[in-house]
Amino acid sequence: MTTAVEEHAGTAAAGPAGEARQLVAFALGHEEFGVPITRVQEIIRHTRPRPIPESPAHVEGVINLRGRIIPVVDLRARLGAAGERAEDSKIVIVELASATVGIEVDEVREVLTVQAEDCEPAPQGASSVSGEAIDSVAKLGGRLLVILDLDSLLGATGME
């Protein structure tokens, strides 16, 4: 049996061996991002996290999710994106290499399948947050979907 993390390891722009992959697409302001559905545990309404003293600036705090303490990352702050959190924002609970983390997003838009030929590697130097934070960019008709590499963006625990 493989875990979501093992399935994700070694994927290129559109999954292993150029296969199509399913993504959860979400918005931060007017920008669209996606993460592999295999990494998403669930999506919940925004709950105000309890702050953690001396945590990194992008860590909002922690929430209690059915008895589990989950750190919540302000994805807008982590990506350096402008704007304020939407009033009806969501928390996407994702699996990292060694932790479960919540990421705050403005809106979850859809689950979609992206074909290998619709993806291109991220442009060199496209992300100043982390060299490999962007896995690829998908061209979907008239829009672009930035596919994030969660492990590179958030580290193994989300607290990095």
Multimerization state? single chain
Strand order of the largest sheet: 8-1-2-11-10-9
Question: By CATH's scheme, which homologous superfamily applies?
Answer: CheA-289, Domain 4
Total number of strands: 11
Average pLDDT score: 84
Basic shape = globular
Tally the helices.
3
- Characterize the largest beta sheet: strand count, sense, and whether it forms a barrel: 6 strands, mixed
Describe, in plain words, how this protein is organized in 3D.
- There is one protein chain.
- The two termini are 29 Å apart.
- With 160 residues, the protein is mainly beta.
- The model is unreliable at 1-14 (pLDDT under 50).
- It has three helices and eleven strands; from the N terminus they run αβββββαββββββα.
- Helices cover 9% and strands 44% of the residues.
- The protein has a single domain (4-154), classed as CheA-289, Domain 4 (OB fold (Dihydrolipoamide Acetyltransferase, E2P), Beta Barrel).
Compact overview of the structure:
This protein is 9% helix and 44% strand. With 160 residues, it is mainly β.
Question: Which SSEs are present, and which pair or pack?
Answer:
Layout: H1 4-8, E1 21-28, E2 31-36, E3 40-45, E4 59-65, E5 68-74, H2 75-79, E6 90-95, E7 100-105, E8 107-114, E9 119-121, E10 134-140, E11 143-148, H3 150-154
Parallel strand pairs: 2-11, 5-7
Antiparallel strand pairs: 1-2, 1-8, 3-6, 4-5, 6-7, 9-10, 10-11
